[in-house]
Every structure is written in structure tokens, then in C-alpha cells.
Specification:
single chain; 116 residues; mainly alpha; 4 helices; 58% helix; elongated; mitochondrion inner membrane; respiratory chain
Length: 116
């Protein structure tokens, strides 16, 4: 269970969030593989051997890796801007986002007795 009760605390990163191993490299690798796959598909479409013109595969793979890194950067910028807007809104309207008291399942669920 999350120990966070304050809505503003949810949107602040205090350096405690560690990205996983695959998180920063997933999009570049996936886009690089897609680029190589596009080169193979183009060769297949022109009825050439799929691995002929290996320089095309390398170029498409490199373009894919660059595009994946660019997409990661843009996504991170978008998410940071969104979090900043939400954080600012919560700071301006604290009465709309009260700190809620934490409840356990025992307090939320009603007692239940099976009928047999």
C-alpha cells in the first residue's frame, strides 16, 4: 500500500524514484528493431534477398534508435510539464484536494458471513 496521503506529495519527485533497467533503453531498441524490420520489408517488397544492401539495414536501425531516443525525450518533457501544471493547480486550490485519512480494508469493507 502506498504511504502517500497528500495529493501534492504524489507529484513531487524527491529522487526516490529509480527507473528500471529497461525503461531508458526500451523505446530506442524497439524503434531500432522496427527500422531494421522496415528495411527487411522493403527488400521483401521489391523481391530482393531480405538482407541485401546491409547498409540500408544499418541506416534504418540507426534512424530508428535516434527516433526512439527523441520520442523518449519528448514524452519525458510532456509528462514533466503535465506534472508541473497539476502541481501548480493543487497549490492554488488546496481546499479541493484535502489530505485524506488513510483507511484499512477492515474499515472500508463491511463484515460478511457466508450463508450456507
Amino acid at each position: 500500500m502506498s504511504a502517500v496521503n497528500d495529493p501534492l506529495e504524489l507529484l513531487t519527485n524527491k529522487g526516490t524514484h529509480e527507473p528500471s533497467f529497461l525503461s531508458p533503453i526500451w523505446n530506442p531498441i524497439a524503434c531500432g528493431v522496427a527500422g531494421v524490420g522496415a528495411a527487411i520489408f522493403i527488400n521483401w517488397g521489391f523481391r530482393k534477398p531480405v538482407f541485401s544492401g546491409i547498409q540500408k539495414h544499418i541506416a534504418f536501425g540507426a534512424i530508428g534508435v535516434g527516433a526512439g531516443a527523441y520520442f523518449d525525450q519528448k514524452r519525458n518533457e510532456y509528462l514533466a510539464k503535465r506534472d508541473a501544471v497539476l502541481r501548480h493547480y493543487i497549490e492554488l486550490h488546496p481546499d479541493d484536494f484535502p489530505v485524506k485519512e488513510r483507511k484499512t480494508y477492515g474499515q472500508v469493507l463491511e463484515s460478511w458471513v457466508p450463508v450456507r
